């Protein structure tokens, strides 16, 4: 699926991924390929981008401050206030 992560200042990530784990305001959740359309609000917490299904260890983790996610078709847009990469 295609993923775009944006803040008001810059693009954090853009590309094809296997999935993404997000801190929703009602609890954490995961979005995988062909997910149903949705819009959800996000709270402060860790966001994990899973790049490759065959290598689940190939991830990028970010600390985010909140925002929204939209899933439509096989495209996911994450709009957040700020993101800091976590090692």
Your description of this structure?
The protein is mostly beta strands and 87 residues long. The protein has a single domain, classed as F0F1 ATP synthase delta/epsilon subunit, N-terminal (ATP Synthase, domain 1). It contains no helices and ten strands. The protein has strands at residues 2-6, 11-16, 19-24, 27-32, 38-42, 45-50, 59-64, 67-72, 75-80, 83-86. The strands form two sheets. It has a five-stranded mixed sheet, with no helix packed on it. The chain is globular.
Please sum up the structure shown.
This protein has 87 residues and is mainly β.
Reconstruct the topology from this structure.
Elements: E1 2-6, E2 11-16, E3 19-24, E4 27-32, E5 38-42, E6 45-50, E7 59-64, E8 67-72, E9 75-80, E10 83-86
Parallel strand pairs: 1-9
Antiparallel strand pairs: 1-2, 3-4, 3-6, 5-8, 6-7, 7-10, 8-9
């Amino acid at each position: 699926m295609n993923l775009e992560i944006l803040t008001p200042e810059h693009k954090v990530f853009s590309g094809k991924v296997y999935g993404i784990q997000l801190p929703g305001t009602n609890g954490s959740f995961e979005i995988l390929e062909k997910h149903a359309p949705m819009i959800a609000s996000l709270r402060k917490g860790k966001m994990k981008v899973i790049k490759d299904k065959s290598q689940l260890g190939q991830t990028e983790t970010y600390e985010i401050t909140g925002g929204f996610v939209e899933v439509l078709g096989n495209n996911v847009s994450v709009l957040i206030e700020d993101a800091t990469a976590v090692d």
